[in-house]
Amino acid sequence: MTSTPPATVTTEEDVPQSEGSKLKTFLSILRKFMGVSDLAAVRFSLPSQLLEPTPNLEYWNYLDNPSAFAAIGTSDEPLDRMLEILRFWFTKDLKYVKGKPCKPYNSCLGEFFRCNWEAEDNAPPIATGNLSVNGTKSGLSSAASSVKSAKIDPRTASNVSVVQTPPNPAGPTVRISYLTEQTSHHPPVSAFYVTCPEKGLHARGYDQISAKFTGTAIKVSPGEHNLGIFVTLERRDNETYQLTHPAAHLGGLLRGALSVTVGDVAYITCTRTKLKAILNYVEEGWLGRAQNKVEGVIFKYDPDNDDKVRIKDVPDSDVVARLGGGWKDKIVFTLGPKPVESHPVDKQTTIIDLNPLAVAPKTIPPSEQQAENESLKLWDGVTQAIMSKQYSKATSVKVELEEKQREKARERERTNEPFVPLFFTQATDKGGKPDLTEKGREVLARAQKGEWDLQGVI
Q1: What PROSITE patterns is this protein classified in (predicted)?
Q2: CA dist., res. 111 & res. 105, Å (int)
């Protein structure tokens, strides 16, 4: 397959732009792609002034609040574990709740990123056995309400923070390690793997998006290889949950202030417990204002006849719990089939309150122990130039890097040698669950020990 050079649009260099000016320039570029079915497949190259100095593989992770991930699987009750999964779900994208979306660098084939989180192990237990169907029993109204997170310490204007040394939280911590690799270029796909051995947890999946410009917003949907996040509870006989992503809209292009809204349906299923959650996101109200509301239902389902795709499809007799709230604010649940709003506020139990939370910082390898194709080192020249507002230099370094990648692609085509991922066994997988190679397992095992040296691995 011939590698198609990305479209490059040039603008006046080394002239700092306001956020509004950036978006106007971005909008003028997007208009050139009206009618293109998938912007993500085109992978056009933006001027450096419009980019956040953040690699794509660093930006796309689901551990904005790692404490919520570490708390999955603690309960012996299936419903409680589903609620633990949901608590994680609503915290995984704090970057959009607490700040602005951004356009990171496009990933290069074979590029990889790794990091750790030192997660506070202090999540309140979820115990629905102590609740009544008609309301909350004494002393348990906030049992699921809070998962702490480290305060944000921004490295750049984006909401992804990185630290070179572990944070110093007050309470006990568990270590979560993360590895992701760009495994395909056409289409652009990356594989990721998250592990927390101390809690017997791992998560994995493929990240791929499909994007289309509608004229006023960009609709972002999961690509064909992105079947969601697969979370496995190793100590529960490998009980696995599939969490599918809803489509979202990146708007505010005309107003000069980017924002993310969601108006779609997401599903969380567990074939072992035979519980399923449907989450319906409401994008806009009757005045056209984003409500950021979500309503949901947890119900008993038949994995062999999974035909319930809308909340209204679920009979009351199968409903175990209902949810409601704002996905940028606070989510509550009630037991039984009655709608959440029919219960008094003091009889609703909070799953998570996002208001006090912030994006947790990562622990990354020291620069001298990073490989040449590791995200932060690979893009360091571009990042440093953007940070110092030397946009012409940033563009020059970026173009040089992208040309090297195209040359590698031409060489593989000439020798008829397909690209083989280093850390994952397959570039894509129809089941959506990537497997690690021995090298990938070794990298994560070393990360768990706080060791970043790659000698003997690559």
Answers
A1: OSBP
A2: 12
